[in-house]
Amino acid sequence: MKSQLSCILFALVAACGDSSTPSATRVSSLPPAPVTPAPKVETPTPKVETPTPKVEEAHPLPTKYSEAMTDGKALAAKGDHARARELFEAAIKLDKKRAEPHIELARLFISTGERGPAVIAANKAVKLAPESSQAWNTLGRAELARFNYDGAITAFRQSTELNADNVWAWNNLGFAHLALKQYKEAIDALVEATSRKGAEGYMWNNLGTAYEQLDQLDDARTAFDKGGALGSKEAVASRKRLEGVKTTVVIKDTKLDTKDDKADKPAKGEKTYEIREPSPEESTKPEGEDAGVEAKPL
């Protein structure tokens, strides 16, 4: 009985010992918490818009001859040569018998330095209107632009014969003779130009230049004065240059010095010219681009 009781007590003590004695801590292994990735923030790519090429609208060509000519002249005056050419060519198609669009085309080509096309257009104008002083004057200008002075003189003379009051043709004829140093002929033509209505300052300057080359300085001064009064700056400068000048011709002394066999030297500071040698360039150069250009249509 005692032994049974002892066993029971022992069992109770053992059981109490299990509950009171600390045992090794039992660590349970837990799975890691799932990591949720941060949402990907996409940076918007800037949208590059490709510019649509601007297509220039084609200008409709006029359907009336008069409209094509009027618009063409206006554009030519503004310097829009390409568009003006289109309109003049349209006018030619609208009326194939008119010389005017060929004249305007020739003028356009002269202003842009297209010498060959200018001569072709001017010749067409003359063919269509052989009695037109304006057409012949334009042909002369086209020939002058390519330095065909003889052809220019022929055309300008024909222009003046058809219309003796064509002041531009007279001036251009004088200009061509000046270029060839034919001063007497230049004076004859330029006197005709300056004696007519519409003469401008540069025409007087051209006349003064021709007089100066023949040493007719009083006449040259008078022409330069009149040109200056009409607004020619070149004529004013030419007149100032001749102030107090008695002659532009200096004859070289050709007598040889027997001592050193050399010609006598001119005085210090004196500029010597041969007889009829052109004066300094500024006096032989006709004024401005207009000197050989028809400034206004008839």
Structure commentary:
This protein has 298 residues and is an all-alpha fold. The chain folds into two domains: 61-163, Serine Threonine Protein Phosphatase 5, Tetratricopeptide repeat (Alpha Horseshoe); 171-298, Serine Threonine Protein Phosphatase 5, Tetratricopeptide repeat, CATH 1.25.40. Helix content is 55%, strand content 0%. The chain is built from 13 helices and no strands. α4 runs parallel beside α6 (133-145). The radius of gyration is 49 Å and the shape is elongated. The model is unreliable at 19-25 and 256-298 (pLDDT under 50).
Task: Give a brief rundown of this model.
By secondary structure, this protein is mainly alpha-helical. 55% of the residues lie in helices and 0% in strands.
Give a topology summary.
Blueprint: H1 2-20, H2 65-78, H3 81-94, H4 100-111, H5 115-128, H6 133-145, H7 149-162, H8 167-179, H9 183-194, H10 201-213, H11 217-229, H12 233-241, H13 281-284
Helix pairs in contact: 2-3, 3-4, 4-5, 4-6, 5-6, 6-7, 6-8, 7-8, 8-9, 8-10, 9-10, 10-11, 11-12
Please name the defining characteristics of this protein:
2 domains, mainly alpha, elongated, 0% strand, Serine Threonine Protein Phosphatase 5, Tetratricopeptide repeat, 298 residues
**Helices and strands, in N-to-C order?**
HHHHHHHHHHHHH
Structural class: mainly alpha
Poorly predicted spans: 19-25, 256-298
Helix content estimate: 55-70%
* Gap between N and C termini: 162 Å
For the record, the CATH architecture of the largest domain stands as: Alpha Horseshoe
